[in-house]
Amino acid sequence: MLCSGFALLGVVIIDLIIHRISLRQRKRRKMEAANQIGALAHPGKAPVPISPGSSSGTIGWHLARRLVQIGVRDVFSVPGDFNLTLLDYLIAEPELNLIGCCNELNAGYAADGYARAKGVGACVVTFTVGGLSVLNAIAGAYSENLPVICIAGGPNSNDYGTNRILHHTIGLPDFSQELRCFQTITCFQAVVNNLDDAHELIDTAISTALKESKPVYISISCNLPGIPHQSFRREPVPFFLAPLISNQLVLEAAVEVTAEFLNKAVKPVIVGGPKLKVAKAQQAFVELADACGYPIAVMPSGKGLVPENHPHFIGTYWGAVSTSFCAEIVESADAYVFVGPIFNDYSSVGYSLLIKKEKSVVVQPNRVTIGNGPSFGWVFMTDFLTALAKKLKKNSTAVENYRRIYVPPGIALRRENNEPLRVNILFKHIQEMLGGETAVIAETGDSWFNCQKLHLPENCGYEFQMQYGSIGWSVGATLGYAQAAKDKRVIACIGDGSFQVTAQDISTMIRNGQRSIIFLINNGGYTIEVEIHDGPYNVIKNWNYTGLVDAIHNGEGKCWTAKVCTEEQLMEAIEMATGAHKDSLCFIEVLVHKDDTSKELLEWGSRVSAANSRPPNPQ
Ligand SMILES: Cc1ncc(C[n+]2csc(CCOP(=O)(O)OP(=O)(O)O)c2C)c(N)n1
Ligand SMILES: *[C@@H]1O[C@H](CO)[C@@H](O)[C@H](O)[C@H]1NC(C)=O
Ligand SMILES: *[C@@H]1O[C@H](CO)[C@@H](O)[C@H](O)[C@H]1NC(C)=O
Ligand SMILES: CC(=O)N[C@H]1CO[C@H](CO)[C@@H](O)[C@@H]1O
Ligand SMILES: [Mg+2]
Questions:
Q1: What is the DSSP string of 183-219?
Q2: In a domain, 12, yes or no
Q3: Structural domains in the chain (count)
Q4: DSSP class per residue in 154-181
Q5: Co-location of 258 and 206 in the same domain
Q6: How many degrees, rounded to 5, is the angle at CA 583 between CA 578 and CA 587?
Q7: Mutate to test the pocket of ligand 3, among 546, 554, 563 (most ligand atoms within 8 A of CB)
Q8: How many CB atoms lie under 10 A from the CB of residue 497?
Q9: Which of 168, 203, 232 lies at the terminal end of a domain, its last residue?
Q10: Per residue in 592-605, pLDDT tens?
Q11: What is the pTM for the complete model shown?
Q12: Domain annotation covers residue 60
């Protein structure tokens, strides 16, 4: 699969090269026209556009071409004087679209959302003030295994190794803080302040991001983007990233031991985790499930990676807050295969899972461990699952048990007219909106739990940030995801507290003609925090959220807002958002009671609270 992916990329790239010439000609005409208008409007101050012919042979051109080759079409940015010339080279590339954001944090989150939909994302920021502002988003991309190329404009190359104090720094001659911060949250850092090694550094950074599926940092001195250099004379040859190949002998041994272990189990199950995505093993996972007949469950952080319409799907395994009957089947199994799990304090509900290591097989992207051992390395997930599928005896005992005991969950009660809207009713209606042409984006907060219970139809996207859990992520991620996945309508569920962190970039969504539907769930505070540990700090100032979005809209672009307090108003708003306003950004503020939470949050909150407050171990 990996191989065919690269072959496809190759074909796409050749295609792009062929089209480039005609696109360049078109762009040149466009720029000439724009230049004439600009010259009239600002005599003597017209920006000097880079004519496509003259940009080739420079770092700026090389970087722009590389981004296009790997599949980036939109770059999220905030300009600054340390990087403006670089931006000129990016906009000179006909196939790149620069999207200006309100702040760097959102630009980083947008690159994250874009990478989720397209496989890779990029953002450009200025030196230190921009770089330090985007850090939180890049750390989040690391936690989610997303290849995000974070490009920062750097100081003039002559300033390295001098004692000068530069602006946009903390006022010391040492200006390496930005680099040192990025060292801890990216898998590679390229500091380009010399043309001679620029080609190698840029290419190593970009290819490392793709190979490791992690973010990288590229800093480019602001005086270099436009200087031609021999190494950039030719169009960069597209990357060929050799696929990882398992050690055949280890693979055989791992499969043999696992098959022996599972074939003697009475009611085995399989549970998919979040690393299925980075291992690109979703298809192999389904093939294994089909071949062995075991039930398949998904860990909360893996939601969206396991097909929920599969006949063996039994729900989300999340310990005490699992979907109905799922935990019972998983925890009573005598063997379970966890594929790509991450067990942390949240996914383990405060370390309360009833899972025994000796009954488990843990399949990671490059390693398989059976029970307390043995453990096999340099075995890749897809190879392993595919080979294991051929060696397992079919055993449908656990699926049959599940079907015997299963009772469907209750349906939210119909309320009297004008009764305040309940969260469970809101999500009943969101469920009805889902299809293969939608994607759900779930913000940290009670939306984690409410969205977790949505039943995803085939091809419905699902994104959230459960390992890192930084509130505000979803606004930028919605912007980036919608820009990358034009065939899907994004449905974002965002709490009021989270929205207050990053609200500004609603502006960028409107400016780019996006048509996402945002449900702003206004419960007057940080409800998820209330359930872990309450205090006066969990109450927030109420805003006029629709008023805010209307003010940002300001009559430019297509945006529609509504405030809803009852089920009738909600139904009417959804009808408008999917009908008359289907081509607009739709923002629906849903007012609910401050204590109206999912029941899962109540249970999970008390368990996480107990784990947080474990006393120190005796010394
Ligand atoms: C950047 C960041 N700051 C603080 C937190 C701690 N935190 C976790 S959830 C949360 C509140 C979320 O409130 P809201 O978005 O309104 O969600 P809900 O009320 O639905 O739970 C806070 C402050 C965090 N996760 N990330
Ligand atoms: C499952 O495996 C057990 C142990 O090998 C076997 O006894 C049982 O018949 C199998 N059940 C089904 C339905 O395949
Ligand atoms: C909230 O904003 C809207 C404009 O979008 C306005 O009509 C409404 O009066 C405002 N509400 C309050 C309480 O000011
Ligand atoms: C607007 C702009 O391009 N700003 C600066 C970017 O860096 C070069 C090189 O240092 C400067 O000449 C530009 O003024
Ligand atoms: Mg809230």
A1: HTTSS-EEEE--HHHHHHHHHHHHHHHHHHTS-EEEE
A2: no
A3: 3
A4: E--GGGTTS-PPPTTS-SSS---HHHHH
A5: no
A6: 65
A7: 546
A8: 24
A9: 232
A10: 999 999 888 988 88
A11: 0.90
A12: yes
Q: Residue 170: which of 129, 131, 219, 138 has the closest Cα?
A: 129
Is the separation of the CB atoms in 379 and 243 below 8 Å? no
As a whole number of angstroms, the distance between CA 463 and CA 433 comes to: 16
Q: pLDDT category, 85, cuts 50, 70, 90? A: confident
Whether residue 364 sits in one domain with residue 268: yes
Q: How far apart (Å, rounded) are the C-alpha atoms in residues 233 and 253? A: 49
Containing structural domain, residue 511: 423-604
Task: List 297's β-bridge partners, or say none.
Answer: 271, 315
Q: Tell whether 222 and 109 lie within a shared domain.
A: yes
* Residue 1 included in any domain: no
pLDDT band at residue 201 under the 50/70/90 scheme: very high
Query: Does the pLDDT value for residue 328 go beyond 70?
Result: yes
Range with the poorest average pLDDT among 22-26, 152-156, 337-341, 483-487: 22-26
Residue 53 pLDDT level (bands cut at 50, 70, 90): low
Question: Is the shortest distance between the CB of 157 and ligand 4 below 6 Å?
Answer: no
Q: CA nearest 560: which of 543, 538, 579, 542?
A: 579
Q: What residues sit around ligand 5, an ion, with C-beta below 5 angstroms? A: 495-497, 523, 527
- Kindly report the average pLDDT of the chain as a whole number: 90
End-to-end CA distance of the chain: 52
Higher pLDDT, 540 or 88: 540
Q: Which of 574, 511, 389 is nearest to 101 (CA)?
A: 511
- What DSSP character marks residue 77? E
CB atoms within 10 A of CB 149: 27
Report the CATH number that the domain containing residue 332 is assigned in CATH.
3.40.50.1220
pLDDT value at residue 54: 66
Note the pLDDT of residue 24.
46
Structure tokens at 346: 């949240």
Residues 384 and 473 in one domain: no
Which whole number is the average pLDDT over 193-203?
97
Q: What is the pLDDT of residue 412?
A: 74
Q: How far apart are CA 86 and CA 78, in angstroms?
A: 12
pLDDT band at 52 (very low <50, low <70, confident <90, very high): low
- Which residue of 77, 78, 85 sits with most ligand 4 atoms within 8 Å of its CB, as the best mutation to test the pocket? 85
Q: Which residues are annotated as a binding site for Mg(2+)?
A: 496, 523, 525
Pairing of the two strands 517-522 and 269-272: unpaired
